[in-house]
Amino acid sequence: MAIVINPISPTAFSVLGLPIRWYALAYIAAFVIGYLLFRRFAQRHNSGLDMTKHELDDLFSWVILGVIIGGRLGYVLFYNLPFFIAHPLEIIAVWHGGMSFHGGLIGVIVATFLFARKWSRGLRVLDLISVVAPIGLFFGRIANFINMELLGRPTDSRFGVFFNGVSDVPRHPSPLYEALTEGALLFVIMYCLYRFTKLRRYPGALCGIMAMCYAVFRIVCEQFRAPDAQIGFLTSWGLTMGQMLSGILFLVGGGLLVSAFCRHRD
Questions:
Q1: Which of 47, 223, 227, 246 has the fewest CB neighbours in a 10 Å radius?
Q2: How many domains does the chain have?
Q3: Taking each helix axis from N to C terminus, what angle separates 205-221 and 101-116, rounded to the nearest 10 degrees?
Q4: 11, part of any domain
Q5: In this predicted model, what pLDDT tens digit does every residue of 40-62 receive, in sequence order?
Q6: Could you give the 3-state DSSP secondary structure of residue 155?
Q7: Whole-number Å distance between alpha carbons of 151 and 174
Q8: Is 179:136 a contact under the CB 8 Å cutoff?
Q9: Residue 92 lies in a domain
Q10: Between the CA of residue 64 and those of 30, 68, 129, what are the distances in Å?
């Protein structure tokens, strides 16, 4: 029997009449927890990074800009370009929702290398960001579920959720699947690889593995997630935009991993 969930207000609470949305809280929690963990890892003697608190704060600012600008532009370009061409002012209306992980990833990569200014140091920074990034994915997907976004495909399984007033059939709670795999599970994997292996000695290796693992989890979870209404399936056999972008990301991650070992050998 499906679980019935009534609509949840996108506004968590108000401060002096200003609505504070779940989406905003998710981003704040992700950035704060991610920053604290990144700083703790970076200040260890074996991290391979030598960064002052001032540099850490600067990096934090660069990453925030990269996530927001890259994530939004990625959504605009990959998922709904005709709409935004017709309504250009909506591009900056991030409070209406619409962020792309793949775009945000590109934004973080660009921001990191602009900050680091050196290839090897940039890769080391990205490796450590890759360890804490799943935290942001976890909170983001929880916010998607609260907002009843990214609805899953119809199902008659016991895991089905009936979103009262939003869908007329039970659906997979796909944002929760993604929160558990792309978020919680991926964080455990990345932390264990960073903490208990020597992969951090190979700049770019952890970043490559994170990209590959995320791509696999996303491709699998997309099997339970309804395709974006404005795009639908890209092929007759059910390929989605998220799966296509994740396939490209998997290849890029594999290239980074191979390159990391090749550089170390040289």
A1: 223
A2: 1
A3: 170
A4: no
A5: 888 876 777 777 788 888 888 99
A6: coil
A7: 7
A8: no
A9: yes
A10: 10, 6, 12
